[in-house]
From TrEMBL:
<dbReference type="InterPro" id="IPR058792">
    <property type="entry name" value="Beta-barrel_RND_2"/>
</dbReference>
<comment type="similarity">
    <text>Belongs to the membrane fusion protein (MFP) (TC 8.A.1) family.</text>
</comment>
<dbReference type="GO" id="GO:0015562">
    <property type="term" value="F:efflux transmembrane transporter activity"/>
</dbReference>
<protein>
    <submittedName>
        <fullName>Uncharacterized protein</fullName>
    </submittedName>
</protein>
<dbReference type="InterPro" id="IPR006143">
    <property type="entry name" value="RND_pump_MFP"/>
</dbReference>
<feature type="domain" description="CzcB-like barrel-sandwich hybrid">
    <location>
        <begin position="31"/>
        <end position="157"/>
    </location>
</feature>
<dbReference type="InterPro" id="IPR058647">
    <property type="entry name" value="BSH_CzcB-like"/>
</dbReference>
<dbReference type="Pfam" id="PF25973">
    <property type="entry name" value="BSH_CzcB"/>
</dbReference>
<dbReference type="GO" id="GO:1990281">
    <property type="term" value="C:efflux pump complex"/>
</dbReference>
<feature type="domain" description="CusB-like beta-barrel">
    <location>
        <begin position="164"/>
        <end position="235"/>
    </location>
</feature>
<dbReference type="Pfam" id="PF25954">
    <property type="entry name" value="Beta-barrel_RND_2"/>
</dbReference>
C-alpha cells in the first residue's frame, strides 16, 4: 500500500491562557448628570454640546428675581442692625445706655448677618455650574424651560479616562481578580486589540440575569470610543511553558503523531484553546509531529509520507 500523504506540524512550547469571555460597552470612567438644586425657569444657557468646561464654570442661569430681592432685603436689615449695634455700643460706653441693650443689639446683628449670608448663599443655587473639568456630552437645558431637581440639564464627562463595563456570567466570576489583564476588541476596529486591566468586580450580581458587572480600565491612548460595543477576554491564568498543537491536529479528542514513517493515534487531554492552537496537557510531547486535518482513511500503523506545513 502506498504511503498516505499528510501534512504535519511540530508540537511546540508556548503560552497557554485561560480567559473569561464577556461583552461590554465603552463608557467614561467619570461622568455626571447635572440638575438644578431649586425649581426655576432657565434664563440663559452658557454652553453647547461638545464644549470643554473647567470646574466651576457657569453652565446655565436660572430666574432668581424673588430670591435676589429677598437677599437684598436681608442685607439691608443686616446693615440696619450694624448701625443699631454700633449706636447702642457707643451709648453704653458713654454711660447713656445700659450694657444689656448693647448686648441685645449685638445678638440681633449676629442673627441678621447670618440671615444675610444665607440669602446670598441661596442665590448660588440659581447658577448651575460644572462640578469638574470635562466635556459637555449632552445638553437638555433650553432657555424658558423649567429646571427642577429631578430634571437632568447637562451630562458632563472627563474624556481623559475611558473604561469598559462588561457583564460576566456568574459561572465564570470565581477566577476574576482586580488587576487582571483583559483583551478588548471591537467590530468597529477590526484587527486591533486593546489591553486593559480589571478595575472592579461588583460584589453582588444580578440574580435575574445571573451576571456580575466588571469594570475594565483602558489606556489613555486608545481608538475606542464611548458607546462602542466590545468583546472582552479577561485572563484568569497563564502557563508560559505549555505544549501547544494546531487546532487542525485535534480529531475527536485525539491527535495523530508520525513516528518514523507511520501514523500513531494519541488520546489527548487538552486545556486552553486559542484561535488556532490547543494546549495539550497529556498525549503529545513537544517536538513530535502531529498530522493536520487527518484524512478519513488514516489508521493506526498506516504508512505516511509527511511534509511540513508552510
Amino acid at each position: 500500500m502506498r504511503p498516505l500523504r499528510v501534512v504535519v506540524a511540530p508540537a511546540r512550547i508556548g503560552v497557554a491562557m485561560d480567559a473569561v469571555y464577556a461583552s461590554g460597552v465603552v463608557d467614561y470612567a467619570r461622568q455626571a448628570n447635572i440638575a438644578a438644586v431649586v425649581s426655576a425657569p432657565i434664563v440663559a444657557v452658557a454652553v453647547t454640546e461638545g464644549e470643554r468646561v473647567r470646574q466651576g464654570q457657569l453652565l446655565a442661569r436660572l430666574e432668581d428675581g424673588p430670591q435676589a430681592a429677598a437677599a437684598a432685603q436681608l442685607e439691608a436689615q443686616a446693615s440696619l442692625s450694624r448701625a443699631g449695634a454700633l449706636r447702642a455700643e457707643r451709648l453704653a460706653q458713654a454711660g447713656f445706655g445700659p450694657q444689656a441693650a448693647a448686648q441685645d443689639a449685638r445678638s440681633q446683628l449676629r442673627a441678621a448677618e447670618a440671615a444675610a449670608r444665607g440669602g446670598a448663599a441661596a442665590l448660588r443655587f440659581y447658577r448651575v455650574t460644572a462640578p469638574f473639568a470635562g466635556v459637555v456630552i449632552r445638553r437638555d437645558a433650553e432657555p424658558g424651560n423649567l429646571a427642577t431637581p429631578s430634571t437632568v440639564l447637562f451630562t458632563i464627562a472627563s474624556p481623559d479616562t475611558l473604561r469598559v463595563t462588561a457583564e460576566v456570567d456568574e459561572r465564570d466570576i470565581e477566577g476574576l481578580r482586580t488587576g487582571a489583564l483583559a483583551f478588548v476588541s471591537a467590530d468597529g476596529l477590526p484587527g486591533q486589540v486593546v489591553r486593559g486591566r480589571v478595575e472592579t468586580v461588583t460584589p453582588a450580581g444580578d440574580p435575574e440575569a445571573r451576571v456580575f458587572r466588571v469594570r475594565i480600565a483602558l489606556p489613555r491612548e486608545t481608538l475606542l470610543r464611548p458607546g462602542m460595543t466590545v468583546d472582552v477576554n479577561i485572563v484568569t491564568g497563564l502557563r508560559p511553558q505549555a505544549t501547544l498543537i494546531p487546532e487542525a491536529a485535534v480529531d475527536a479528542g485525539r491527535a495523530w503523531v508520525v513516528i518514523g514513517r507511520q501514523a500513531e493515534p494519541r488520546k489527548l487531554r487538552t486545556g486552553a484553546r486559542a484561535a488556532d492552537s490547543v494546549e495539550v496537557i497529556s498525549g503529545v510531547r513537544p517536538g513530535e509531529n502531529v498530522i493536520l486535518n487527518p484524512p478519513p482513511r488514516l489508521r493506526a500503523g498506516r504508512a505516511v509520507k509527511a511534509s511540513e506545513a508552510p
